[in-house]
Amino acid sequence: MSAQSLVGRRLVHVVGSWHVYGGAAPEGPLDVWLVDDQGAAVLITTGSDWCLIVEMSEPHAGYDMGESGLVTVGAIGKETPFAEHVGETVLAVREDHEPHTGRVALELSFPTGRVRCDSWAGDLRLTAL
User: Fold this and answer.
1) CA 102 to the chain's CA centroid
2) Most exposed residue of 45, 61, 87, 92, measured as fewest CB within 10 angstroms of its CB?
């Protein structure tokens, strides 16, 4: 999907997925779904080529990977910078692209700040700006 289609959407809910292994605390989310006031969910995640994927997709259920741990899925509280913008409308979107990879970063502007999503060595990284 075009990331520009996020402009004008009001964020009402954020869902994330985390890899949980052993007793270690999960690190940043693997995936993030931004749910708007119309009920549409937009997935932000990384691809196998380290690109940043932005697509319409409903959150999936968590799953067990046996000895490799679990992937849990649920509502995000204060775990990501998006939590600060629930109830706000996306005002602008900016993307960064690499010639061989495609989109590698997405910056969403809200009335009270910005959130940058980027693929860092294949991992999703979210930063408040």
Assistant:
1) 17
2) 61
What distance in Å separates the CA atoms of residue 80 and residue 65, rounded to the nearest whole number?
Answer: 24
pLDDT at 89 over 80: yes
| CA-CA-CA-CA dihedral for 33, 35, 39, 43, to nearest 10 | -30
Could you tell me if 21 and 37 are in contact, meaning their C-beta atoms sit under 8 angstroms apart?
A: no
Q: What number is the average pLDDT over the span 21-33?
A: 86
CA distance 108 to 121: 21
Mean predicted confidence (pLDDT) in 67-95 = 93
Place of tokens 């402009």: 7
What pLDDT was estimated at residue 25? 78
- How far is CA 6 from each of CA 48, 69, 80, 92, rounded to the nearest angstrom? 24, 33, 18, 8
Alpha-carbon distances of 36 from 7, 43, 102, 104, rounded to whole Å: 11, 12, 25, 23
pLDDT band at 1 (very low <50, low <70, confident <90, very high): confident
